[in-house]
Amino acid sequence: MASFSVSGAASDLQRRHLMHCWGVQGTYDPIPVERTEGCWIYTTDGRRIFDLRSAHECINLGFRHPKVLAAMRAQMESVVYVTDDFATAPTARLAQRLAELAPGGPNKRVWFGQSGAAAIEAAIKGARQYQYRRMIERGVANLDPARQYPYPYKIITRYRSWHGATAGAASAGGDPRRWFQEPAVMPGVKHGPEVYCYRCPLHQTYPSCDLACAAYIDRMIELEGGADKVAAVLIEPVVGSNGILVPPPGYLPRLREICDRWGVLLIADETMTGMGRTGKLFAIEHWDVEPDILVMGKALGAYCPLSATIFSEKVASAFDDMVFGHGQSYAGHALACAAGLASLEVLEEENLLARTADLGAYLGRRLHALAEHHPSVGEVRGLGLFWTLELVRDRSTKAPFRRPTEKYAPSPVRAVARYLLDRHNIYVPADKFGLWIVPPLVVTRAELDAVVEALDDALHLADAETEAGGHCGE
Q: Where are the domains of the chain?
């Protein structure tokens, strides 16, 4: 095989032959990388780029953490992968640890996949199969023709959400990326209002609204047939891609109460927020709520693709004598599970949860102070090291620069992201609805200060458009 320089041929070959995710192929121009370390990407032409999105929110521990790499090297010398007809120590131990650490009792069961989307598929199938089992247990009374359809299969989600790109997961999401799959979407998904106090979809004001967005979900369950037709409510405890939306204090406890009252399951998608991103291992812990099914992904396996669907004892027990109808090659991959175990150990040994909460509070204060000087910043939102600046054309009207139908159009968000990369060597995604500030959990205070100073400079582009009341090109 012919060799080639990373700086030249590799970049050219990738541009010509790799399908770039969610992008126009003709303008794809990948930056050749020589190495990575901590929060930084080192390019072959000598640049040092700060990764402000933690590599798709996957690298919470930074690049090349020595303990995780050591665990992976050791595992590669014994077992990399066998099917789950066989048992390996890291797979078994990680399943046990997640069952113990997730909210609720320790007698849970865990399914391992390679992506958050696959784990969401497992959660949806598991919820439907669980409800099917309950329907059978209720007996012939449940088959009354007046019920019209005896199988609870509907999944209620929210418009501002994203759960992955596979068929079921994309159907469940409310992100504009769902539109690429339509009309071939999974049946049974119903979208409700997001919890978005800055732009309340119900035109209410918190707290006088009495959590109208949660009450709407309650009404949806009733109008969709109650427990006879609805299997589960699927939510991100803190919405990620669609705005880093942190719910008000009573919202998630109210959803838990609604689900319990109707007898439907609550599924928490922690693909982005799990593994300490918000200052707790799971974001839902901030509100002391126990989901029936919890999904993890991204940072779980550190440098290996790994996701997990964690079923509560109540749900898992339904499959003791019934087939769990989901699976995937490489499920329970021993090498990935070894990396996941090491990642959990690093979070504990380096006290990263408390550190993330502390640094997150500091970052929040700095971002709120920054916003006071920039008219383009409509709202600052976040929790832990999971923050966004929502940019607006007009603060008084909250008119956005980027509407959902303009996700891939030129905008000040895209222009500011490009400026940060070109002028400050800071990488942030350009396709979000605000400026993404999601550094690795190992970030230092000095690095956060440098990021805020760079944002202070870059926001002049959006400010100019706010004052002009127009749009910003690239």
A: 31-64+351-468, 73-349
